[in-house]
Design brief:
The chain is mainly α. The protein contains seven helices and no strands.
């Protein structure tokens, strides 16, 4: 399966991978949330939290989704990492500005 790199404006947050799962992947499967959760061996509530973007894609979940969708787990983990980093950078922006790199302190 081919993976495509998507460029987005730096100010625009990455989409949570759960939203991609909900909007792009699941509709093509024509299965209910309950059926998908059952096939992934997780609770329906757990899947809902991922789809709503309130729960991250963990390595374990990436393995499950990848197996189910015939994709690579790294794809889902990279999406989650980009999402998490973007939000962490904005949350910590003021603190990070105060940290001097090793080169700056010499």
């Amino acid at each position: 399966m081919t993976e495509y790199k998507v460029k987005r404006p730096i100010n625009r947050p990455p989409i949570h991978p759960g939203e991609i799962l909900k909007e792009d992947v699941l509709p093509n499967l024509r299965m209910s949330i309950s059926q998908v959760a059952e096939r992934l061996f997780i609770s329906r509530q757990h899947l809902h939290r991922i789809l709503n973007g309130t729960h991250p894609i963990t390595p374990e979940m990436a393995l499950r989704i990848a197996k189910f969708t015939n994709q690579r787990p790294a794809l889902w983990l990279r999406m989650q990492l980009k999402y998490d980093l973007w939000h962490a950078e904005r949350r910590l922006e003021k603190e990070l500005d105060k940290i001097q790199s090793e080169e700056q302190s010499i």
